[in-house]
């Protein structure tokens, strides 16, 4: 099965917000507050301005089945993964791996030596996925001070060409 991945558009704002809100709702105490995620107002422009990219997989009825973004972290020669979400109806079919492959291509073509990401401590399903892809949890956590009282774990993955 071929998964049609496309670059995000700014008009993906509503469906992308709905995907993320539904994902947050799976975890007790995790609430979606749109004002805490201003990048969702114009998602394509946000990632482009950071030198990155956001990819989308369309679902039925104007929904988004999955998303994954990358943005460079120049002081580390790394790319940071962001907005990694898959609708529960599409999980287990390889969609997240396909999106990750796109991010890996982006990183390798850009000569980056590492991938990094931050993930809410409650997103245990995501943590297992990242570890399966070769990410290791890095020491330290960060507190976001958001409505969900979120703490995040840091994950890192060396890429080809890393010292």
Could you name the CATH topology of the domain at 5-115? Aminopeptidase
Instruction: Compute the number of strand runs.
Output: 7
The global form is globular
CATH H-tier superfamily of the domain at 5-115: Gcn5-related N-acetyltransferase (GNAT)
Poorly predicted ranges:
none
Mean pLDDT figure: 93
- The number of helical segments is 4
CATH architecture of the domain at 5-115: 3-Layer(aba) Sandwich
Largest sheet: 7 strands, mixed
For this structure, what is the CATH class of the domain at 5-115?
Answer: Alpha Beta
Given the helix and strand composition, which structural class is it? alpha+beta
Taken in chain order, the helices and strands follow as: EHHEEEHEHEE
- Helical fraction equals 25-40%
Rg, Å, rounded: 15 Å
Spatial ordering of strands, largest sheet: 1-2-3-4-5-7-6
3D structure, described in words:
The chain is α+β, with helices and mostly antiparallel strands and 163 residues long. It has a domain at 5-115: 3-Layer(aba) Sandwich (Aminopeptidase), CATH 3.40.630. It is built from four helices and seven strands, in the order βααβββαβαββ. A hairpin with a 7-residue loop joins β6 (136-143) and β7 (151-158).
């Amino acid at each position: 099965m071929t998964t049609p991945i496309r670059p995000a558009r700014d008009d993906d704002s509503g469906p992308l917000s709905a995907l993320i809100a539904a994902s947050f709702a799976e975890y007790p105490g995790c609430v979606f507050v749109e004002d805490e995620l201003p990048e969702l107002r114009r998602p394509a422009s946000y990632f482009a301005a950071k030198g990155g990219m956001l990819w989308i997989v369309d679902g039925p009825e104007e929904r988004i089945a999955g998303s994954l973004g990358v943005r460079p972290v120049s002081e580390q020669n790394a790319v940071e993964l962001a907005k990694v979400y898959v609708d529960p109806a599409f999980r287990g079919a390889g969609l997240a791996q396909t999106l990750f492959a796109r991010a890996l291509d982006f990183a390798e073509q850009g000569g980056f030596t590492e991938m990094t990401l931050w993930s809410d401590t409650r997103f245990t399903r995501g943590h297992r996925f990242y570890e399966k892809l070769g990410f290791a949890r890095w020491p330290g956590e960060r507190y976001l001070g958001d409505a969900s009282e979120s703490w995040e774990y840091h994950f890192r993955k060396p890429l080809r060409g890393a010292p």
